[in-house]
Amino acid sequence: MSWNSSHFRPSAQLFEKNGVMEEQKAPRFRKRETEVYVGNLPLDISEEEIRCLLKDFNPLHVHKIQNGCKCFAFVDLGSMQKVALAIQELNGRLFHKRKLYVNSNRRSPKKSPDVAEQPQELPVLEKASGQGFARTTACAQFTPKASGDACVPEKPRTSVFAVPMEMRGSFLVLLLRECFRDLGWLATIHGIGGEVGLLVTSIVPQTPFFWAMHVTETLHQNMQALFGALAEAEEQQPYLHDLAVRRGTRCLAEYHLGEYGRAWNRCWVLDRVDSWAVVMFIDFGRSATIPVQSLRSLDSDNFWTIPPLTQPFMLEKGVLSSYQVIHHILKGKITGALNLESHILKFEEFK
């Protein structure tokens, strides 16, 4: 069977029928809760270019700040829902060869004159390599600079990467037990080998880790069966009661498929903060922050008989830096598995 990216295009009946849900803000919400922080911007960028960068979210006001070699902006998007969507879509994306840092402006970080304005990454504790993971000490990506060294480029460092928490075996075992009541999916991963086609569903920017669907006839059949069942059940599934949304809840939520639109898909609640739920889309390997009132019930085991469509991989060489690979097929071969996280397969792409 010949595969290409068009096979991933979901049926039109999966798309939202009533338009995008708009958040109704209570009067007590402060304006800064509708603002988003955009960091690591080019020094010569204009406010109009920043507005264009966030055009999909209809920015109301842009406030650019430049401090020495640092440039960032606070952008008012008008609603907390748009803030969450902007973070989901733009955080980590490359813009003018710079990795954007997009965060909520709900808490103003403490600033130090000598520390870079961008949020610092956590120290990496495990090193990914073909020999497994070796314990190592690593500096955060952004290191405080002495005042006399302003604008001096840092020396290149050896790349060190931590396995993302949502890819670790301890997390996946918990997810599989609570969602599918079955751990058999982990055992089937080791049967994949040789030359493969991988349909990328999510990446961890600037790292070798990504989620992808192993393109086979079985995958095609599972996609048709699952998406067909969800499309039929979409309008029949009631919205969850507020008290029912908590960690571990199996539910149905809209997933953004880029140029393909939006579709209702299976997800699992990771956490909840006030009126927002952090969910993991099981079949795409991606988390998102979604309004609690937009989640539908999906607790029947009938919807959870098909195992996750996607699984974690790691590039043998290089990193993934562009979101453009999402929803496209990478061709290459499986070269093995990580020693301490053996469910993560190593993949070498054909050039």
List the helices and strands and how they pair.
Layout: E1 35-39, H1 47-53, E2 61-67, E3 70-76, H2 80-90, E4 94-95, E5 98-99, E6 101-104, E7 126-129, E8 132-135, H3 169-179, H4 184-189, E9 194-203, E10 209-214, H5 217-233, E11 250-256, E12 262-273, E13 276-281, E14 286-291, E15 296-297, E16 311-315, E17 329-337, E18 345-349
Parallel strand pairs: 16-18
Antiparallel strand pairs: 1-3, 1-6, 2-3, 4-5, 7-8, 9-10, 9-17, 10-16, 11-12, 11-15, 12-13, 13-14, 17-18
Describe the structure.
The protein is α+β, with helices and mostly antiparallel strands. The chain has five helices and 18 strands. The chain has helices spanning 47-53, 80-90, 169-179, 184-189, 217-233; strands spanning 35-39, 61-67, 70-76, 94-95, 98-99, 101-104, 126-129, 132-135, 194-203, 209-214, 250-256, 262-273, 276-281, 286-291, 296-297, 311-315, 329-337, 345-349. Strands 9-10-16-18-17 form a five-stranded mixed barrel. It has a five-stranded antiparallel beta sheet with strand order 14-13-12-11-15. The protein is globular. The two termini are 22 Å apart.
Write a compact overview of the structure shown.
With 351 residues, the chain is an alpha+beta fold. It is built from five helices and 18 strands.
Number of helical segments? 5
Major sheet strand order: 9-10-16-18-17
Beta-strand content: 25-35%
Whole-angstrom Rg = 21 Å
Please report the distance between the alpha carbons of the first and last residues.
22 Å
- Give the averaged pLDDT, no decimals: 77
Report the order of strands and helices: EHEEHEEEEEHHEEHEEEEEEEE
Largest sheet: 5 strands, mixed, barrel
Shape descriptor = globular
What structural class should be given to the helix and strand makeup? alpha+beta
Estimated helix fraction: 10-25%
Given as residue ranges, the uncertain stretches (5+ residues, pLDDT < 50) are: 1-31, 106-149
Count of DSSP strands: 18
